[in-house]
User: What shape does this take?
Amino acid sequence: MACLVIKEFLRLDYRSTHISLMEWSDLRRIIRLTKVPHFTTLCAAARRLLGKAKADATLDAVLDHCRQAKILAKCSK
Assistant: This one.
């Protein structure tokens, strides 16, 4: 997920993200990345992790957890 965040933050395509991660050893160390994923792996991960239905479900789960912990007030969905 960190690689995809970096891709979006730097506004890179998948190939450029792969190349940047290969060249940026300090960043790899900070995010504890021992092996740089191939650009096609990044693309597949984005499709799998960032699909709208999955993202909505994840957000709903986080919001429910926050409501149960009384971090957020209840509101209509």
